[in-house]
Amino acid sequence: MKPEHNPIFSLVGRVLIAALFIPAGFTKLFGYPGVVNYIAAAGLPQPQLAAVIAIGVEIPLGIALLLGWQTRKVAGVLAAFTFIATMFFHQFWAVPEAQQMVQHLMFWKNMAIVGGLMMMASLGGGAWSLDNWRAARQAGLAPAAA
Hints:
Elements: H1 7-30, H2 32-41, H3 47-67, H4 71-89, H5 97-123, H6 130-139
Helix pairs in contact: 1-3, 1-5, 2-3, 3-4, 4-5
């Protein structure tokens, strides 16, 4: 038996998570020199390349998630990206005591986002997504029916 999924919840979930990645990507794009310096300060190699990768992940994949296009794959890539970025930039265990609380909160907030993305990777984009529209069109059904 296939469980029913609320299309409104799926849409709102995609919109809210995309609303995190898309502006973050544009902030990195328009603040590129500062982002490169921030990445370099974290000790990562090739900070210019890392910044370009972050921008190249956050903007297009954020838009794809928003639209519900290739949702399972996109959510999986964003989950992996977020997990990796969190491990490098929110090491609450390795910062001075005065920074630990904020970094601890940021770490677990990001882990919750990873969890939400993993659910999207598992469940897909929902009835109101391009994925569903394409699948319904290929099957000759009304797009919002599923």
